[in-house]
């Protein structure tokens, strides 16, 4: 195969697979070295960008996925099932945040953090492909663990979980802790563990 045919083969595999595919898996399928596949994928990615194609080649660390360019999202939604594209509820966003920042987690952990039953929300997120089962935790009863999926990363425009915003702003060590500063001394003693 010449270079153009190899790029076409990569394009066909990514299109047919639909989900992100590991670079090593693509290299195995093509019977070539991962570095050569990486170079071809980067060329293909540049071609899509240069001609403003309706497709875009996404790179999630060592995985690649062919997707619709966000610019064309609205027109594509017109022919797809719009029920899957309904906005997420505040409860769903809360559950996603708990899972993304703490994964893998059990449903009971999610419910403990949120303080409410989350079984229907978890079921809806599973159905939409934003979370998935990640095995079982080594806890009494062996509860099912959940983690976010590549779809979650794509929907929220993240390359990896490392791209999530920090949970808490970094404090300046020179600044006093304002939470204890304005509390009377008698109450401060009660607040200590």
Describe the structure.
The protein is an alpha+beta fold and 193 residues long. The chain has two domains: 71 residues, Winged helix-like DNA-binding domain superfamily/Winged helix DNA-binding domain (Arc Repressor Mutant, subunit A), CATH 1.10.10; 77 residues, Winged helix-like DNA-binding domain superfamily/Winged helix DNA-binding domain (Arc Repressor Mutant, subunit A, Orthogonal Bundle), CATH 1.10.10. Helix content is 48%, strand content 14%. Strands 1-3-2 form a three-stranded antiparallel β-sheet. Strands 4-6-5 form a three-stranded antiparallel β-sheet. A hairpin with a 7-residue loop joins strand 5 and strand 6. The termini are far apart. The C terminus is likely disordered.
List the helices and strands and how they pair.
Layout: H1 3-17, E1 21-22, H2 23-30, H3 34-50, E2 55-60, E3 63-68, H4 73-77, H5 90-102, E4 105-106, H6 107-114, H7 119-127, E5 131-136, E6 144-148, H8 150-155, H9 178-181, H10 185-191
Give the termini separation: 69 Å
Unreliable stretches: 178-193
- The beta-strand count equals 6
Largest sheet: 3 strands, antiparallel
> How many discrete domains?
2
CATH superfamily of the largest domain: Winged helix-like DNA-binding domain superfamily/Winged helix DNA-binding domain
Mean pLDDT: 83
What's the short version?
This protein has helices at residues 3-17, 23-30, 34-50, 73-77, 90-102, 107-114, 119-127, 150-155, 178-181, 185-191; strands spanning 21-22, 55-60, 63-68, 105-106, 131-136, 144-148.
């Amino acid at each position: 195969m010449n270079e153009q045919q190899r790029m076409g083969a990569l394009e066909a595999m990514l299109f047919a697979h639909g989900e992100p595919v590991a670079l090593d898996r693509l290299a195995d399928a093509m019977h070539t070295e991962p570095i050569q596949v990486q170079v071809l994928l980067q060329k293909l990615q540049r071609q899509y960008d240069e001609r403003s194609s309706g497709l875009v080649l996404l790179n999630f660390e060592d995985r690649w996925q062919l997707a619709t360019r966000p610019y064309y999202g609205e027109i594509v939604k017109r022919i797809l099932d719009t029920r899957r594209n309904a906005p997420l509820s505040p409860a769903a966003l809360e559950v996603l945040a708990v899972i993304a920042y703490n994964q893998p987690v059990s449903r009971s952990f999610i419910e403990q953090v949120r303080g409410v039953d989350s079984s229907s929300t978890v079921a809806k997120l599973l159905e939409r492909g934003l979370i998935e089962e990640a095995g079982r935790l080594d806890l009494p009863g062996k509860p099912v663990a959940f983690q976010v999926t590549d779809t979650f990363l794509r929907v929220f425009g993240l390359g990896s979980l490392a791209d999530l915003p920090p949970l808490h702003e970094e404090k300046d060590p020179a600044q006093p802790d304002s939470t204890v500063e304005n509390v009377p001394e008698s109450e401060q003693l009660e607040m200590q563990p």
